[in-house]
């Protein structure tokens, strides 16, 4: 299991310390980019991503919760970001082209969906995406409660990926903690994103280790 703590839950007044902690303990560093249009919240943009990229010692995993995600692929590539996901709801018919462009830029391409999108909507992209991101809360805010129906969605997507003879990783994002991580692992998740569970803990490294062992 790979663990991708979300920097959204970090202490923005001491971001360098938190990036250092994640560089020591996490597998990936998850960057939640929100534009105030695709989701009703704004997080951070390139002034923060550029700064994080300069010091991060773990691969960066950018989760674009924005309209027109294709506008940002080049800058993410310039920052050395390793994984880029965007939402099917935002890209629509451009999803295949977006996945292709991310891959052509040498990054891993991920397709994300909110909980109200039938998970079957991802099936046509099995074989095109390097990973999938199944949201287990509605994108926009950290600290929300895990939606239990997400487990069945991960299982269904895992089954379809297996049916196609592939092993594409499934990332799960939202309300993930040490309690639901084992169920998520059994359902077929391969990457766990966790914001509050990691940063609200007095020992973030221990939470990361627990999630990894799930
Ligand atoms: C929500 C973001 C998540 C969020 C996770 O829109 O995509 O990555 O930061 O935070 P928690 O783990 O607190 O739900
Ligand atoms: Zn995210």
Describe, in plain words, how this protein is organized in 3D.
There is one protein chain. The protein is of the alpha/beta class and 214 residues long. The protein is built from 9 helices and 8 strands. It has a single domain, classed as Alpha-Beta Barrel (TIM Barrel). Helix content is 35%, strand content 19%. It has an 8-stranded parallel sheet. Helix 2 (46-55) links the parallel strand 2 and strand 3. The protein is globular, with a radius of gyration of 16 Å. Bound molecules: D-xylitol-5-phosphate (DX5) and zinc ion. Residues 6, 8-9, 30, 32, 63, 137, 139-144, 173-176, 193-197 line the site of D-xylitol-5-phosphate (DX5). Residues 6, 30, 32, 63, 173, 193 line the site of zinc ion (ZN).
């Amino acid at each position: 299991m790979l663990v991708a703590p979300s920097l959204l839950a970090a202490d923005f007044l001491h971001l360098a310390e938190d990036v250092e902690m994640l560089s020591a303990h996490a597998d990936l560093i998850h960057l939640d980019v929100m534009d105030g249009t695709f989701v009703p919240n704004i997080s951070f943009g390139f002034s923060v991503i550029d700064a994080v990229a300069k010091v991060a010692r773990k691969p960066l995993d950018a989760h674009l919760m924005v309209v027109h995600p294709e506008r940002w692929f080049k800058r993410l590539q310039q920052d050395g970001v390793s994984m880029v996901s965007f939402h099917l709801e935002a890209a629509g018919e451009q999803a295949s082209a977006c996945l292709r462009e991310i891959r052509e830029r040498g990054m891993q391409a991920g397709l994300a969906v909110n909980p109200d999108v039938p998970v079957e909507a991802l099936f046509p992209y099995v074989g095109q995406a390097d990973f999938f991101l199944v949201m287990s809360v509605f994108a926009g805010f950290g600290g929300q409660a895990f939606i239990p129906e997400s487990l069945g969605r991960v299982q269904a997507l895992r089954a379809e990926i297996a049916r196609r003879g592939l092993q594409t990783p499934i990332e799960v994002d939202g309300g993930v903690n040490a309690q639901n991580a084992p169920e998520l692992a059994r359902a077929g998740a391969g990457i766990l994103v966790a914001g509050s569970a990691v940063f609200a803990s007095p020992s973030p490294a221990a939470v990361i280790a627990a999630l990894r062992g799930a």
